[in-house]
Request: fold
Amino acid sequence: MDPEITTSDTPTLAGRLAQATQSLADALANLDGQFASLHAKVDRIIAAVDDGELEVTASANSLHNKLAELEKANHDLKAQSAVARRKTLSPMVTALLAKQGVEADATIETPIVEKALAGLSIEQRIAVKAELARAGILV
Reply:
């Protein structure tokens, strides 16, 4: 034993050690409480993130389905517009065809067009035929 420590100091030292041990036990209890609290908070955060990921996945799937539907609708509309082109003619072409007794909204065969356009120059005939072809009326 240390010669400086006497037997009369032993109860004092034992009391101090007991007090220090109690302080350490209290600090440990506080740390355990804080750890449990932090652990609970981390668990709530993880649960919220997991729920958010599920919501994002469901939302992404929904958006992919909507995109596929819209692309299909767009494709269908393009197909319809290709079939249903506007079939209008200029007033000059309509008047020329009407003079020959041809209705402008019906399909017209080439010999009838040639007969109706006989009085025009070659450039004018080409322009009228191009317009009829573009409108989908010339067969």
Q: What stands out?
A: Residues 4 and 62 are 82 Å apart (CA to CA). The chain has a mean pLDDT of 79.
